[in-house]
Amino acid sequence: MNIGRENAAEKTLLFTAILATLIISPTFAYDPINLPKMLVISTGAFALIPFLIISIQTIRVVSPIAFTLSAFLIFTFLLSMLTNDRSFSQQFWGVWGRNTGFLTYFAFITAFLVSITLAYRSDFILVRLAFERLSYAISIYTLMQAGGIDPINWSQKQMVATLGNLNFMSSFLGLATISCASRLFHEKLSLTSKLHYLFFVTLNLYLMWISGSIQGIGVFAAGLSFVVAFKIMSKTSFRNSIIWLILTAGAGSILFLGTMGLGPLSPLKQVTVIFRRDYWLAGWNMTLDNWLNGVGIDSYGDYYEQYRDLSAVTRTGPERVANTAHNIFLDVSSGSGLFAGLSFLAILVFVMIAILKTLKNSRMDNTFIAVSSMFMGFIVFCLISINQIGVGIWGFLFAGYVVGASSRLSSSTSESFKNSKSESQTGKKTPRFNSEWTLPAKLASLALGLIGFLIALPPNITDAQMLSAIKKGDLVSMRNVVTEISSTSQFTKKYMTLLLDKGLVAEAYEFAGEELKRDPRNDIALRVVAYNDKAPTEQRKAALLSLKQRDPQNLEFAKYLDELLAKLG
Questions:
Q1: Are 365 and 122 in contact (CB under 8 A)?
Q2: Is the CA virtual torsion 103, 104, 108, 109 positive or negative?
Q3: Span 361-420, pLDDT tens digits
Q4: Angle formed by the axes of helices 34-47 and 439-472, to 10°?
Q5: Taking Cα atoms as reference points, which of 24, 28, 40 lies closest to residue 141?
Q6: Which helix (H) or strand (E) is 485 found in, with range?
Q7: 297 and 73 in contact (C-beta within 8 Å)?
Q8: Is 355 strand, coil or helix?
Q9: What is the torsional sign of CA 267, 273, 278, 283?
Q10: CA 241 to chain centre
């Protein structure tokens, strides 16, 4: 094994994940959170491609199922991107404010596969240490925000850390708390170390509680149940640990239903969780209606109004919309089709099976216990949240670690690795490590990292240009920005809204016509045309019918549109 090669890949992967969580651009970016994070993971993933190529045979032998499922998931994303009518740029870079398009998932899968190799070849213990050290910084910064001493002058004063949202911050701290709790449960620590980890457990739980976000509590509870299950296994038996997991899963399900206003714990209902029911149903409807290739990667928001039901409209009013299903499985399946959703689900189920197999065989170490438990917390995150880049990258690292470490800890693969028996002796394929991390490989890594950086750079530049134009009130520059290929529908909406606010109706109508040629579903462009008395009658009729088709359950709006259509004859 080439230790130098392993260390280079490990450092690149962990530095990418750490920077992706920390990086923000509050001064120069309209979206200061997600775009710089996408830039970082794209650069890191491309830089890791040479290592991935060198290691591909290892991955195929160690975990052919993980390799096949990953390749198939990427294929389904490509199929969706090439066969949908959504803009290529939106599907590739992702919708503004999320950026969970093809490029982000390519980076996630690359991190997953590289993590498998690293965890199989060595302990890869740094993955846990790096995450814990990072979490300390996030905890302290969140505490500063809670105390009103944030050095950054955000437009909204909230406990969001560097992740842009209360729920993402809460979930990240939930994952971190799992690791600290695992040390208290499973490791022999000095009094100083115990106090250290107890402090961060207490601090994180306090921050999650005062934030009002229950996501982190749910993530922590799921992970803690596995921390305890590993403890039960070490003290008693696999059977007892499974009974414990079944009981905690049942209790967690009842509690979760209660937050949705269902079951015996319905008084615990949370409004935001009830809203998620609406988003999930719309995502499922999109999946069923577009089962082969979805509606387009990261394009949920373009179809939400069309696929929501009547209760979603009447619950709080038709103005409540969403650009994500708030469930990563449904985000994937609605955007890229049923096969994409199933392959993503299969990857995570495969990882869970690896955890249970290792638990049953009692072959585990402290890092495996902690990372496996954090992965189970990530599963809860997947069920109720958005695949935020700064959190999601760690979920895929944890998943890869579990698969690789599970193979390493199993007796058969460990022995084959240690003995390095040839295929002629055993009749079985054995992972080989015969490629050096040579100077050409290093240069290729640097070159590909630069390519990844340049690929993710255009939307970052466009975003900065849009912010500058908005600050200056420069409509000419703004128009130039919104016509660039890396622009987003959010910028178009902002531009046309400003035109209308300034009474420039003719200019807004002209631009709306151009925009509808690029995107016939653009909501604000359709409204500008539909409500313009000087627009041709047939054009207005077409726009009105499109608006009605976009939001069929909004009955009052549909009635208003019908009245306008009747006047047009």
A1: no
A2: negative
A3: 767 789 999 999 999 999 999 999 999 999 999 999 999 999 999 988 874 444 444 444
A4: 170
A5: 24
A6: none
A7: no
A8: helix
A9: negative
A10: 30
Residue reference for tokens 């306008």: 564
* More confident site: 417 or 65: 65
Alpha carbon 215 to its chain's center: 15
Provide CB contacts within 8 A for 64, sequence distance 6+.
none
Residue 318, phi then psi, degrees to nearest 5 = -70, -15
Between CA 84 and CA 94 the distance in angstroms is 14
Q: Are 529 and 536 in contact (CB under 8 A)?
A: no
Q: For residues 431 and 422, what is the distance between their CA atoms, to the nearest angstrom?
A: 10
Q: Which domains does the chain have, with CATH numbers?
A: 3-426 (no CATH), 474-568 (1.25.40)
In whole angstroms, what separates CA 209 from the centre of its chain?
Answer: 23
Element (H, E) at 567: helix 555-568
DSSP, res 323: S
pLDDT for 361:
77
Q: Rounded to whole angstroms, how far apart are CA atoms 221 and 217?
A: 6
Query: Among 5-9, 237-241, 279-283, whose mean pLDDT is lowest?
Result: 5-9
Give yes or no for residue 279 having a pLDDT over 80: yes
CA distance 365 to 538: 70
The answer to whether 71 and 340 have CB atoms below 8 angstroms apart is no
pLDDT digits (tens, 9 = 90+) for 126-169: 899 999 999 999 999 999 999 999 998 887 788 999 999 999 99
How many Cα atoms within 13 Å fall on the side-chain side of residue 450? 5
Q: Output the pLDDT for position 69.
A: 96
Provide DSSP, 165-223: SHHHHHHHHHHHHHHHHHHHHHS---HHHHHHHHHHHHHHHHHHHHHT--HHHHHHHHH
Nearest CA among 202, 24, 130 for reference residue 398: 130
Residue 139 to residue 158: CA distance in whole angstroms: 14
Type of residue at 155: S
- Give the span between the Cα atoms of 99 and 101, in whole angstroms: 6
DSSP category for residue 321 = -
37 in Cβ contact with 99 (< 8 Å): yes
